[in-house]
Specification:
Layout lengths: L2 H5 L6 E5 L6 H5 L8 E5 L2 E5 L5 H7 L11 E3 L5 H4 L2 H8 L9 E4 L21 E4 L6 E3 L2 E8 L5 E8 L2 E6 L8 H4 L5 E8 L9 E2 H11 L3 E5 L3 H6 L1 H12 L3 E3 L4 E4 L8
Parallel strand pairs: 3-4, 4-5, 5-6, 10-11, 11-12, 11-13, 13-14
Antiparallel strand pairs: 1-2, 1-15, 2-3, 7-8, 8-9, 9-10
Bound molecules: zinc ion.
Length: 271
């Protein structure tokens, strides 16, 4: 039990650091935005979501720096490279170079088995625990649970609902719009949405801006954050688009920037 939970009355604060905000291949390949993952500090628990290219570098260079050896877990939503390139090195770093096994890895089954598993076999002894996502089945951590939401995205992909002491946090990762998504992310106070394209186009496995706004409107979070931008979003100016969305929906919408920190006071009332 943490010192925070022993004292009782104040839930521990949480902080989310968006180390990278790049979405589509072109933006990632040219590093127009960084492609590092999202680092969550929930009370005493630190978790990394989707360690894309550059995650180790961006974590060590963050101010203040983030320490992989303090991570409790690494969550992989799917195996596409912009989400998984640094997963092996981060598993090794979490275990202090492999010397001290530590933490939990949760990943889709096709990241571990099948033709092209991205998680190397020789790093699989570094975490204490490896779990495979199963739709709707929560995975327990100290202080929160992570429940996967299946997305339609080519490879096996899961968004996440984290139920924590600072509310329900929804991470709408890559995938196309689905009529079931609003219900699956219902009750989230914070919604972070991978919004790759500005306009809807058919047969694309990503959320467009209009679809992201529809989802925000239906879920009605206290704060929504757009991230994982492709070229069409970057050209149009994500901040301007987010400002317009806030006005239209009456819900605060932010456009993520590389290194942006979100404090839990932004989406909780009494912290
Ligand atoms: Zn993807």
């Amino acid at each position: 039990m943490s010192a925070h939970s022993q004292t009782g009355d104040h839930p521990p604060a949480a902080r989310i650091r968006l180390l990278g905000t790049a979405g589509a291949r072109f933006v990632v390949a040219r590093q127009l935005r960084y492609s590092a993952g999202t680092w969550l500090e929930l009370g005493d628990t630190q978790i990394l979501l989707d360690p894309g290219p550059g995650t180790l570098t961006r974590a060590r260079r963050a101010r203040p720096p983030l320490a992989p050896e303090k991570l409790t877990g690494i969550l992989l939503s799917h195996k596409h490279l912009d989400h998984s390139t640094d997963v092996n090195i981060m598993l090794e770093a979490m275990a202090e170079g492999g010397r001290r096994p530590r933490g939990t890895l949760v990943a889709p089954s096709d990241a571990l088995e099948g033709e092209d598993p991205v998680i190397l076999r020789y790093v699989r002894s570094f975490p204490h625990r490896i779990e495979v996502w199963q739709e709707g089945m929560p995975v327990e951590f100290d202080g929160f649970t992570a429940t996967p939401v299946r997305h339609r995205h080519g490879v096996e992909t899961y968004g996440l609902v984290l139920a924590s002491t600072v509310g329900r946090l929804g991470f709408v990762v890559d995938g196309r719009m689905d009529q079931e998504l609003p219900e699956k992310y219902a009750g989230c106070q914070l919604l972070v949405l991978n919004t790759v394209r500005r306009e809807w186009t058919p047969d694309v496995d990503h959320l467009s801006l209009p679809e992201a706004l529809e989802l925000i409107q239906q879920v009605n979070p206290r704060l929504a954050v757009l991230t994982h931008f492709g070229m069409t979003m970057l050209r149009a100016g994500p901040r301007r688009l987010a400002d317009q969305a806030s006005e239209k929906l009456g819900i605060p919408v932010l456009a993520a920037t590389d290194g942006m920190t979100l404090e839990s006071s932004r989406w909780t009332q009494d912290c």
